[in-house]
């Protein structure tokens, strides 16, 4: 995982993703780089448009509020719970129709 993070950091800083750069980042983080993993990552990423891959990646963190955004109100949580309960009731009604 640290190798991918190193590559993403290099990409963000608009630096070349090379074996030396990845190795230097891994070393500076206090780990011992594995040459085989470094070579494999650099080779794999040589044919990938990282910017496009990042744009098309599903973003699970999008649903997590940022530290600066206010927390959802209690009313919003209650409304969401009511909607969930309604969906469950509708599902149960559908099941009861199947069994008479």
Q: What would the keywords be for this entry?
A:
mainly alpha
Q: Please compute the radius of gyration using only Cα atoms.
A: 23 Å
pLDDT under 50 segments (min length 5)?
none
Largest sheet: none
Count of β-strands: 0
Output the structural class.
Answer: mainly alpha
Average pLDDT across residues?
80
Work out the count of structural domains: 2
Number of helices: 5
CATH architecture of the largest domain: Orthogonal Bundle
The fraction of residues in strands falls at under 5%
Give your account of this protein's structure.
Helix 1 (2-12) packs across helix 2 (19-28). Helix content is 64%, strand content 0%. It has helices at 2-12, 19-28, 35-45, 50-56, 74-98. With 100 residues, it is mostly helical. The protein folds into two domains: 1-57, Orthogonal Bundle (Arc Repressor Mutant, subunit A); 71-100. It has five helices and no strands.
Which helices and strands occur, and which strands form pairs?
Elements: H1 2-12, H2 19-28, H3 35-45, H4 50-56, H5 74-98
Short description, anyone?
64% of the residues lie in helices and 0% in strands. The protein is mostly helical and 100 residues long. It folds into two domains: 1-57, Arc Repressor Mutant, subunit A, CATH 1.10.10.1410; 71-100.
């Amino acid at each position: 995982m640290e190798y991918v993070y190193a590559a993403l950091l290099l990409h963000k800083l608009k630096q070349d993703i090379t074996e030396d750069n990845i190795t230097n980042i891994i070393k500076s983080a206090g780990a011992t780089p594995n040459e085989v993993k470094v070579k494999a990552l650099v080779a794999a990423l040589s044919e990938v448009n990282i910017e496009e891959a990042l744009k098309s990646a599903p973003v699970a963190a999008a649903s997590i509020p940022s530290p600066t955004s206010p927390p959802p109100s209690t009313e919003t949580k209650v409304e969401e719970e009511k909607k969930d309960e309604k969906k469950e009731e509708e599902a149960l009604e559908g099941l009861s129709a199947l069994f008479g």
